Amino acid sequence: MTDASGPVEPLGRPILDRLAFERLTAAHRRELKLHCYRMMGSLHEADDLVQDTFLRAWRGRSQFDGRGSVRGWLYTIATHSCLNAIKARSTAHRILQQPGRPETDGRATGGPAAEFTWLEPYPDTELPDLADGEPGPEARYEAREAVQLAFVAAIQLLPARQRAILLLCDVLGWSAVETAQLLGGSTASINSALQRARATLGERYPQGRPQQRSRPNRQEALLLERYMQAWQAAKLDSLIELLKEDATYHMPPWREWYRGREAIHAFLGTVWGNFSGYRTVAIGANAQPAVGVYARSHQDLLWRPHSLHVIEAADGKIASLTIYVPPLGPELFAAFGLPPI
After folding, report:
1. What gap in Å lies between CA 50 and CA 75, rounded to an integer?
2. Which domains, from first to last, does the chain contain?
3. 155: which residues sit within 8 A by CB, 6+ positions away?
4. Taking the chain (341 residues) in consecutive chunks of 10 residues, what is each chunk's mean pLDDT?
């Protein structure tokens, strides 16, 4: 198999040596982990699957003949590992929003929805260098665009094989021929599945794709700073001013979600005083601005992990807030390098 996104490295005999194998595979660790994350919607499952990929590669190294690229070989193993893992688990995909659930008006009363598996955010510290990791010429999505939380949520709606085909062709830029060699089946069947996957995404995105993410800029940095200040100063009105009129607010693992400044203001007003104060730490998730929020209760002086906020900005305002609240939010802090207290 050829490599659609650049020069390839011959493997040859050195793979028989463990140190040489580790050097060659380490160069692909981050991009393979991101691929597994896109397939699974889970940071923790991606960790396990990339480890499984390297273990399988080591055990099967004698089967690699060196005529293709190490990268293509590893993607073959990783993709099949993901497909097998999806087949084995109880639910086919993770969600960011309960399908078919209308927006909420008023107080949230449902509580955490343990019966759903929720899409997890991805730390920017684990991303491959997006500047150097541009996809192949046949890709439809730019590297930063295909990392967004909303994009990963959208592709979770696809059947597993369609998801894999879309990622290989439209995100990584592999040809239908190369993808057929990896997954099995004919080129025609790959193209057919790809068209179905694109049609499904087209229903989610009227323009056929998510909003393109600009590179971080001063305006976005200022917006993040003002957002953090609003939380730390406990100024709800200041926070609401940062939102677009039609902004959305999701809070996994709760089912409820809100649309529009007025609805978000009304909901936050019901919970804003539950804690005596907040502290914020700037992080990055899915190549988007993000914040870890610590809270101190009225009875406890310790600052404890509370929630992880992923921000989608547009035109100098916040278009969407995804706030991972307890119990899911605090469980994610370690993955983002945030201390437990």
Report:
1. 10
2. 93-123+141-148+214-341 (3.10.450.50)
3. 38, 163, 166, 167, 197, 201
4. 42 57 84 96 95 91 71 93 91 83 88 90 90 65 88 94 96 94 94 95 71 71 96 96 97 96 96 93 96 94 96 94 96 95 80
The pTM of this model reads 0.89
Q: Which amino acid is at 12?
A: G
340, 320, 332: which is closest to 126 by C-alpha?
332
* pLDDT (0 to 100) of residue 18: 79
Q: Which residues are CB-contacts of 289 (< 8 A; sequence separation ≥ 6)?
A: 216, 220, 223, 224, 227, 282, 310, 311, 313
Written as six digits, the tokens of 16 are 């028989």
